[in-house]
Amino acid sequence: MKRVSSFLILSILIFWGCANQLPPGGGPVDREAPQIIRTFPENGTLNYNKNFVEFEFNEYVNKRSVANSIFISPYFNEEIEQKWSGKKLRLIFPEKLKENKTYVISLGSDISDLRGNKLNETFTLTFSTGSKIDQGIISGRVYDSKSDGIMIFFYLIDSLNKLVDYSKTKPDFVSQTSKDGSFILTGLPEGIFRIIAVRDQMKNLLFDLNEDEIGLPFRDYEITDTLRIIRNVQFEMMKIDTIKPVLNSVKFVDLNHLILNFNEPVDLSTINPADIFIYDSTGIENLNPAGFYLIEKNSLMLVTPKLHSEKD
C-alpha cells in the first residue's frame, strides 16, 4: 500500500512539473539574456514558399512573453499558430504568403527566460517570397528614463505630413527598443514612413490616448533607391493628458485655510485665484482666496480671508 501511494504522489509531481515552466534549481543565479541561435529559413532567404518559420533559443523561455512579442509585416488577418518543441518555436501562417513580397518577423525585447532575463535587443528575421529582398533600414533611439521595451510603429504613407489616426490605424511595420533605447528595422520597402514611439500598455499596436506615452517625429522619412539607410531617428517620450483633474475633497483646517485634494497632480500656473469662489451655507456671500500653495503633488492649500466661524 505504501508503494502505491508513493507512486501516485510521484506521478502527480511529474505531471505538475510538465504543466508549469519553472526555472532550474541550484547552481549560480542566471543573469544571462536568452539568445536565438538558429532560424528556419535563414535570414535573407529568397524564394521562400513554406507556410511556417522556426526560431530556436539557447535556453527555455517564458512562452507567454513570446506570445506577446511576435510582430509580422505584412500582417495576417487571422491568428498565427504557435507550436513549441523544447526550445524551438514554430510559427504556422494561417494563409498563403504573398508572391514577390519581403516579410519581416520581429521578436521583441520583452521576451524573457524563466529567470526573467530579457533579450538584449529585438531579433529580426527577413526573407522574401520573390527573387529580391527590400533593402531599406531605419534605426534610432528613444530617450527616456525607462527606454527599453518601447514599441516603434512604422506607417507607410503616400504623401509627406499625411494625417494618421494612431488610435485607429495599426502600423505597417513594428520594432521594439533594446535596453539602451536603440532600435533598428531592416527589410523596409521604398516609400515614405511616419514613425512614432509608443509605450503600448494595452499591447494592441494602437496609441491609446490617456493610457500610453508617445514619442512624436520631427518629420517623415523617405527610403528611395539612392537612400536606403536612415539613421539617428530620435524620440523623447511624453504623456498626452486630455482629462481634466477632479476635485476629490475639501478639508477645513482653520478659519484661514482649506486643503483641496485632487485626483492627480495639478499645475499651479493654470490656477487663477479669481476663478475660485467660496460660498457660505446661505449661498449669498462668496469669497475669493488670498492665495494658494502646493503641499503635496495632488493637494493644494487655499489661503482665505477669515471665515465666519458660525457659517459653513
Task: Catalogue the unreliable spans.
Answer: 4-18
Level-2 CATH architecture of the largest domain: Sandwich
* Helix-strand pattern: HEEHEEEEEEEEEEEEEEEEEEEE
How would a crystallographer describe the biggest sheet? 6 strands, antiparallel
Give the overall form.
Answer: elongated
Coarse structural class: mainly beta
Q: Tally the beta strands.
A: 22
CATH topology of the largest domain: Immunoglobulin-like
| Helical content band | under 10%
* Strand-residue proportion: 35-45%
Mean pLDDT: 86
CATH class of the largest domain: Mainly Beta
Tally of helical segments: 2
**Span of the ends, CA to CA:** 80 Å
Radius of gyration: 28 Å
The number of distinct structural domains comes to 2
Keywords:
22 strands; 2 helices; single chain; mainly beta; 4-stranded antiparallel sheet; 312 residues; 7% helix; Immunoglobulin-like; 6-stranded antiparallel sheet
Give an overview of the whole structure.
The chain is built from two helices and 22 strands. The chain has helices at residues 2-19, 63-67; strands at 36-40, 52-57, 70-73, 81-85, 88-92, 102-107, 123-128, 136-143, 151-157, 173-176, 182-188, 191-198, 213-215, 221-223, 229-236, 238-239, 247-254, 257-262, 278-279, 286-287, 291-296, 299-303. The chain is mainly β and 312 residues long.
Compose a concise summary of this entry.
With 312 residues, the protein is mainly beta. The protein has two helices and 22 strands.
What does the secondary structure layout of this molecule look like, with pairings?
Layout: H1 2-19, E1 36-40, E2 52-57, H2 63-67, E3 70-73, E4 81-85, E5 88-92, E6 102-107, E7 123-128, E8 136-143, E9 151-157, E10 173-176, E11 182-188, E12 191-198, E13 213-215, E14 221-223, E15 229-236, E16 238-239, E17 247-254, E18 257-262, E19 278-279, E20 286-287, E21 291-296, E22 299-303
Parallel strand pairs: 8-15
Antiparallel strand pairs: 1-2, 2-5, 3-6, 4-5, 6-7, 8-11, 9-10, 9-12, 12-13, 12-14, 13-16, 17-18, 18-22, 19-20, 21-22
